[in-house]
TrEMBL record:
InterPro entries: NTF2-like_dom_sf (IPR032710), SnoaL-like (IPR037401). Pfam families: SnoaL_2. This is SnoaL-like domain-containing protein. It comes from Steccherinum ochraceum. It comes from the Eukaryota. Residues 21-98 form the SnoaL-like domain. Transmembrane segments: none annotated.
Length: 147
């Protein structure tokens, strides 16, 4: 499994389960799993603002972004360091690591804040992610993938 499970809860809440489904979808490049974790009104915000990345709106757009990036990262593993849950929010602190096909070892630290909403059918899905990331590592990767 591409998630290092050191701190995964034994019996996660529906909110945490939705966030972990998103993380697993990204970590395993399982785009169907990722899409299934995302609500129709999804928004993805890459932070800090100094990166200058515009928000991404919609399930298809964010899935396409990851389809452009993840295949270029061989052996990608996300190690979860901490999970914090609040009303409607889950914060996941991770480290992502892989060998990039651009000739460098990719290692980035992330702090994902997930807004999780209960759907009409009773399931929980992610409708917003604020992704705080290492500026220098992210700029290097964005330049390498042409973003």
């Amino acid at each position: 499994m591409p998630i290092a499970p050191a701190t995964l809860p034994a019996d996660p809440s529906p909110q945490v389960s939705a966030a972990l489904k998103w993380v697993e979808g990204v970590a395993s490049a399982n785009f169907d799993l990722l899409a299934s974790a995302i609500a129709d009104d999804y928004e993805h915000v890459l932070q800090p603002a100094s990166l200058g990345a515009p928000p991404i709106h919609g399930r298809d757009a964010v899935v396409q972004m990851y389809k452009n990036i993840l295949p270029k990262l061989q052996g990608y593993v996300m190690t979860i360091l901490e999970i914090v849950e609040g009303q409607g929010k889950v914060v996941v602190h991770t480290i992502g690591e892989a060998d990039a096909q651009f000739g460098f070892h990719y290692k980035n630290e992330y702090l994902f804040t997930f807004n999780v909403v209960k759907q009409a059918d009773g399931t929980h899905k992610v409708n917003k992610v604020q992704e705080f990331t290492d500026v220098e590592v992210t700029k290097t990767l964005m330049k390498a993938v042409g973003a």
